[in-house]
Design brief:
Layout lengths: L5 E3 L2 H9 L6 E3 L8 H4 L13 H6 L4 E5 L5 H7 L5 E5 L6 H13 L5 H21 L5 E6 L5 E2 L6 H6 L4 E3 L15 E2 L11 E5 L10 H7 L4 E5 L1 H5 L5 H12 L1
Parallel strand pairs: 1-2, 1-3, 3-4, 5-7, 5-9, 9-10
Antiparallel strand pairs: 6-8
Helix pairs in contact: 5-6, 6-10
């Protein structure tokens, strides 16, 4: 492990690496990898999740690169395999998948001192939150979770975000699956769909689009019978170290 050099091209995975005690081994991140701020500030940036600067990344000579099916492009991953010894592909699609994600990183880096112990603590906290969710009931609601505007974009039911919301019986509309990857996982909402009249809550995510109070009226016009709320997109959509806190946050929203 002496030559371990990790590049993370996924914000939530960068955060998880730091929590597992691997900060000193991270040699590259994206510009969206902003947490924990103090820990990542000095790590070189290699572009964004969709527009990775492969030439700069090659110069940093990573031994491992962490990618995600939803967040990174397939052609990027294929290019990485030409010069990176190990590309670790992740794809958590539900909160319970974080347990396997943690195990995946332990399999790669668990020989380093303290990593397995920190991972066990993360697993324990998450398992407790998932168990608590199973003991509680919440009124079922149909919700529209918006991640973008111009055009409006929502989430399919087989995405991580939708399955997080389902933990509190908030069922996302439209009632579609998007498949394993691709744009269909984040369907466009045109504004004339009949099911918009059935939406009980519109949730405006704080990221990737920075929805704010100025967008509430437009969202209310989209779904005139719905309650409109701005929600913390990082807590709902970031997997890894933030998943347990995300589940607690959802319980508070649903209370």
């Amino acid at each position: 492990m002496a030559a371990l050099r990790i590049a993370s091209l996924v914000p939530s995975l960068t955060e998880l690496l730091v929590v597992l005690g691997l900060r000193e081994h991270i040699v590259a991140r994206t510009g969206f990898c902003i947490h924990p701020a103090d820990a990542v500030r000095d790590i070189p940036k290699v572009g964004g999740t969709k527009d990775v600067n492969l030439a700069k990344l090659r110069r940093l000579a990573p031994s491992h690169v962490l990618v995600n099916v939803d967040e990174n492009r397939l052609d990027t991953v294929q290019a990485l395999r030409e010069f990176v010894p190990e590309v670790i592909v992740t794809h958590p699609c539900a909160p319970q998948d974080n347990l396997a994600l943690i195990d995946q990183l332990v399999a790669a880096f668990g020989a380093l001192p303290g990593v397995a112990e920190r991972a066990a603590a993360c697993r324990h906290e998450l398992a407790q939150e998932l168990a608590l969710m199973r003991t509680q009931t919440h009124p079922a609601q149909d919700v529209l979770y918006l991640i973008w505007r111009e055009p409006w974009m929502s989430v399919a039911r087989d995405t991580y975000i939708s399955r997080m919301l389902a933990q509190v019986q908030w069922n996302t509309l439209p009632e579609v699956d998007g498949g394993a990857h691709g744009a269909a996982r984040y369907p466009v909402v045109h504004g004339d769909e009949p099911w918009l009249a059935d939406v009980q809550q519109v949730l405006l995510s704080s990221e990737p689009y920075a929805f704010g109070p100025q967008h509430v009226d437009a969202a209310r016009a989209l779904c005139p019978h719905a309650r409109v709320r701005i929600v913390d997109g990082e807590l709902i959509s970031w997997y890894g170290a933030r998943a347990a806190a995300g589940l607690r946050y959802l319980r508070e929203l649903a209370a």
